[in-house]
Every structure is written in C-alpha cells, then in structure tokens.
Amino acid sequence: MAMVSMKDLLHHAYNNHYAVGAFEIVSLDFLNAVIQAAEKTRSPVIFNVVEAHFDLFDVRLLMAAVVQAAKRSSVPVAVHMDHCSSLDTVGAAINLGCNGVMYDGSNEDLPVNIKNTRQVVELAHACGVPVEGELGHVAGIAGDNGEYNDDLSVHTSVQEAKVYVERSGVDFLAISIGTVHGRVNGKTRLDFTRLARIRESVDIPFVIHGGTGLNDQQYHRLIDHGVAKINCFTALAESAVQQIQTNLSQEGATYREVFARLSETIAVKVQHCMQMWGSAGRAAEVLMQCDAWQNIEHVIVYNTSVNEPAVVEEMLRKGKEQLSNIPGVLDVQIGKAIREQGTYRYCWLIRFAHASVIESYKTHPIHVAYADTIFRPLAADRISNDYVIVDDFELGRQMRPMTSQSA
Question: Which residues pair with 48 in a beta bridge?
C-alpha cells in the first residue's frame, strides 16, 4: 500500500522546495492517466475529487476506484476532496476514504469563515485528516473553464492570513494572488510581494488553485515562496477534449476508437507538471519519511442475553444504520457465526479511517447513545480490539499494538 499521510506529504514538499500536483479525477480515464504518470516519473501525487463535479459521476463509485488505486499504487498517494461546501460534505468525504479535505469558505466574511473552518478542522482532525482552508477568493468556477475577471477575484489579505490560520487551525492555506479557475486569456499577473508578506507571518504549506496558464518561472517562484500543492484540471480536460475531437474526425469511428489514447494523452500533461514542479523522482524518499495511511479494523465479538430473533435483528439494523454516520467510519459489517456451538455468536466489523478515530468514535454521541441504550444491555458478554491489516502497511515498520474499550 502506498497511501500516505497527506500532512506528512505536503510538509515534505514544503521543507524540500517542490510541489505535489493535485490532479482532479472525473473518470477512470483521468485516474488511469494520473497513475501512469506518477509511476513513470516516480512522483508522489494527490488524487483530487471536487464537489462541484459531483454531477459528472456517482461519487461513491468513483471514490471506491480512487481509494483502491491509491492503495495499489507503488508511489505515495493522498486522496483529497476539494471545495467542500459544508461540514456534512467533509464528513462524507472522510467516510468515503479521503485523507485530506478542503473547506471552501472563501465567499464568507472572515469571522464566519473562521468559525465554519474551525468546525471542519475539529471534525477532520478527530479522524486524523488534515484540512486545507481558503482565504481570499480565486475567480472562476472550480473545475470549469472560464475567463479571467478581476472583479470576481479577492486577493488574500496579508493582515487576515495570520488570524485565519491561528484561529481556524488549518493545516494548509489556499491563497489568492492572481490565479483564476479555468483557462486564462492573456498572461496571468501574480502578486509575489503579497505572497512573500503572507509567508512571513504564516509558516504552513500554501496551495495554488487555478494554476493553468502559468509559465515555468512563475511556478518555480511560487514554490520558492512556500507553495507545496498545486491543483490541476483545465489543462488535462483540454488535452482530453482535443484527443476526442481528433478521434471523432476519423470517419466511422467506433466507441473504442473515439476514446482511444485518452489516458495516454492526459498522462503526458501530468508528467510535464510533475517534472516542472519538482516532484518527479521523489517517491522513494517520501515513502521512507512519511507515515503510511492505515485504516483500522475495530472488531467486537459478542453474545446476546436474549434469544428473540426480532429483538436481535432490530439491534443489528439500528447499529449498522447509526454507526455508519459517525465521522471516520468507513464501513460497518455484521457477522453471524456459522456454527451454533461457536464461543461467540455475533460480531461487528467496523473499519475506521485512521487510528485517531478509535478515541473520537468512543466518545461520539451517536456511538454513546447506541452502545449505552441498545447494544450493551443486550450484549454484556463481549470482547473488542483494534487491528491494522498486515498487508496495509510497509514491511519493516514496527506495529504498535492498540486496545480499545469502545463497543
């Protein structure tokens, strides 16, 4: 498994003066392209899924593929949900397997942005997940093509940046210094003086949204000023459209021919970004220096004090329904013993996103209410423990035993 802590990943980039690309995934063609490019260049990478594009795909199906691709990859990968609009979206993103989230409060007044971002940080950090926040506003619609419009851009305030970071608790800061979402007409002018002043007061990795159209020199200066994550979609989408148009120009093109070479074409753009931003060739050192992202299996085996099937079934149904809504709970499964003479007749198999969830789950109001009023009165005879699946962490890393009294 090569899914790594996104916080470790971006701090490695920040401290070593390169940037990791966050490439938006909208289909399996994009996912395959980003994997191909990352493994060919031996680059760490971020798979980026954007809330604004949920209408293009079934998010649960796509996220399942994205997370599995991250775990199978031979290079370090983080999975990020971008431009989350609410606390509910953030919680859903984490429960779908994201180990990084962005809350976009850039259209809000500073006090409201701080308050809402702080709530996101508290929820995400309880699950071990870092948070990207945005101060200022990048013009254009996230993930879509658009023209530059100065009237819609709000540059990040130097004075507000320190206050926002300290009070919100964000791990990464998305800044607005002149970029725009979508394709830019003409040359983009970046306010590097503003960026330098922000960095003097804020010592966390910066993020650039709307980077399409910048030149190599601008990217290098951004990285020199603390940018460690650069989002990319428009350039990839445009190359995909051009390839499809070329394929359609062939008379009588079949479905297979219309979408031929799509991943390969997108991958060329991704490789170029990885080389330009300095992440190419960094995979080995990142894997050595960043913590692996490990899911935790919370296992409870138990017997019930009643033999009424309807009562037991209702307890199980409510548990699966309610516990699945706790932030950081990726999956809830119910087991029944095959053999009647087994020591324990039932089990819960609950997958946590991260070891941090062990504690936050134990004290979460949903868990407390279910355990105290429904489960424990019927299941006094029980054993619980937490496990890391051996295949999910690198050989050679020491296992840290963990116990839990939650049930």
Answer: 24, 80
